[in-house]
Structure prediction request, 653 residues.
Amino acid sequence: MSRIQKTLAALKADCRQALIPFITAGDPRPGLTVELMHALVKGGADVIELGVPFSDPMADGPVIQRASERALAHGVSLRDVLGMVAEFRKTDAGTPVVLMGYANPVEAMGYQVFAQAAVAAGVDGVLTVDLPPEEAEECAATFKRHGIDPIFLLAPTTPVSRIQAVERLASGYVYYVSLKGVTGAATLDVASVAAKLAELQSYLSVPVGVGFGIRDPESARAVAAVADAVVIGSRLVQEVEAGEAGLAARLTEFLASVRAAMDTARR
Amino acid sequence: MNDKLRYNQPDARGHFGQHGGIYVAETLMAALDELRVEYEKAIADPDFMAEYRYELAHYVGRPSPVYHAKRWSELLGGAQIYLKREDLNHTGAHKVNNTIGQALLARRMGKKRVIAETGAGQHGVASATVAARYGLECVVYMGAEDVARQSPNVYRMKLLGATVVPVTSGSKTLKDAMNEAMRDWVTNVDSTYYIIGTCAGPHPYPTLVRDFQCVIGEEAKVQMQDMIGRHFHPYVEVPGVRLIGVEAGGHGVETGQHAAPLTTNAKVGVLHGQRSYLMQDANGQIVETHSVSAGLDYPGVGPEHSYLKDIGRAEYVAINDDEALKAFHDLCRFEGIIPALESSHALAHAAKIAPTMAKDQVLLVNLSGRGDKDIPTIAKLDGIQL
Prediction:
């Protein structure tokens, strides 16, 4: 069982939902990322999604685009991101880390070379946004061979045939994109998320996390009532963007408020 | 037909050899599948194709002529240069062949809103034109740098009723306009049809755009024998025809400031929904490109070109900014034709190789657009205030 699977299974046994915060590696500067990861864990993160900066983040809204630009201005590469995970692992052996990014940096390194380096660094899962199951056979197989969970997206537009294609390849969890749009867009419609999740869960054996449009304790609680995990990204990146002063403490405090709200969610 | 040239590409999932495919976020997968199904139905529907052909004839003014550039050929002293006059199309470029096909498809699919990316503005103008023609809302994404250097086209799009959105992220050129168009599409996928302007992007776009642009090569085949064109596809299976693709060499491929992924043997990569040769750094980040021509200022290339390079069916060369500018001026002065800066790259290569060829050999250049839109750029380079 992978670190992600163990973590999510333990939460489920406890009738709790996972809190999965996202920040972009190297934002606002590379030296701060590991400290911020620990701050997220302190605030109640069960899994950390760490964004790999990319020059052309097509699926992201302006907030995460700017985070990528800030990190790239410091020359942060995929190898640098793996270095940050390795550093984080020195003092946290338990919290799963998922890298989230685009296919090209991984392609440029090569699936095999990347998978070996990622496992050595302590990476647990990888989500490449622009690699749908049709194109991900080789990549997912390589990841699984190395014990990395390939994480896939599902969307409001996903038909049943595609849910099954994802089920065949996915492990760890799947990430349900709650709305049609880019990261940080509009607010989510909990009723439609709940309806789609019921459909997804009837075809999936892996847990389902929900992201996009969750920005406060209230929306997190609403999603926690129907999903296995809650992903928060743009809202945290906005906090990073607001400046370095007291940043780690602010992230911890915000996440703790989300955690507290989720733990009162009624199932 | 020579067996060696038998060609059947792409495969069912849009792969041209190792290139092509579908590399987009999950939200768009269903829309791309719907587009593929509807497109296959449309091209098998005689009524759809009849309307498409009618529009090409009566609205665009096809067939476009093939013109023998006799005077220029004589001055160059070698091969005879012929021009496929796509510059004479309504809207002034080949782009409209494709936008008519896609707008008819959008209407057939019940979409009321179309979006497009544009570099030089020719595809944006062609999209705005057909949107006006068929009563569709139109939003065009254009890099802020291109908005500045192609201002006549920006105003044309506005006259035609389109909204032009300047894109200020990244290098502020075509690549960034495409990112922003993708973001719009993922947000408005139910109501919106994305008109991609070139044989690139996720399947089925490279095939669909190619098929709508094949009219250029099919006409040329009838109009001439054993000729070549930039839209290679109709000639791919014709033995004895050399296919040459011309990329933007910018300040020179050795300077790194260019937009010539094929000529410079760029690595294969994934961007904008496809796998193909792609200009990138060692870490897989996309690099900024340079070309005097906004329409060529892009780090990638359509998957079919990459495949034709792999199988050795087409050869690819780069022409620098200054060479393209010389060809631009030469065609103005010797033939009385003002070509687009994009097309001037192909003209420059023709001028380069014509003198090395025999007088009875023929070069067919796809003169893909006219240069009216480039007049402010040329004047600025010549130090003239208009």
Notes: The domain at 3-262 of chain A is CATH 3.20.20.70 (TIM Barrel). The CA atoms of residues 2 and 147 of chain A lie 7 Å apart. Chain A has a mean pLDDT of 96. The beta strands of chain A are 18-24, 48-51, 97-101, 125-128, 149-150, 152-154, 174-177, 208-211, 229-232.
